[in-house]
Amino acid sequence: MSENSEALKRGYDAFNSGDAEVLAELYEDGVRWEGPNADGVPMSGVHEGKDAVLQALGQVAEDFEEFNVSPDEMVEEGDTVIVLSNISGKTKAGNDVKTPGVEVWRMRAGKAYRVQSLADTAVMRDALGN
């Protein structure tokens, strides 16, 4: 496994366990996160800079009691790693959510400088009651 894939595995594990310190190590200071363009869905829109990305990731806990992103497969080509994932959780309203996700990571020396994240926004909205 490459340096980039190893860093991403650590990052997913840190996110799922709530380890903000290790998660922060995954991102360059100037990282750009591009989520779906869907109001009412966590991580939607564009977040610029490490602090903004970490703050947005932390806001997931506002809507969910449990939230987990499990990478199933990583496909790497140069500095790009595509992660096929499964997203699951339980909203604070008690609704379950389960949907596939795709994250496209642009990496430099084990740190993300651009992330594009895609998920079924209709499933997320339904679970959140939006």
Supply Rg. Answer: 14 Å
CATH architecture: Roll
Computed structural class: alpha+beta
CATH topology: Nuclear Transport Factor 2, Chain: A
List keywords for this structure.
130 residues, alpha+beta, Nuclear Transport Factor 2, Chain: A, 5 helices, 6 strands
What does the model show?
The protein has 130 residues and is an alpha+beta fold. It has a single domain (3-128), classed as Roll (Nuclear Transport Factor 2, Chain: A). It is 32% helix and 45% strand. It contains five helices and six strands. The protein has helices at residues 3-17, 20-24, 50-58, 60-63, 121-128, and strands at 27-34, 46-48, 64-77, 80-91, 96-108, 111-119. A six-stranded mixed sheet has the order 2-1-6-5-4-3. A hairpin with a 2-residue loop joins strand 5 and strand 6 (111-119). The protein is globular and about 40 Å long. The termini are far apart.
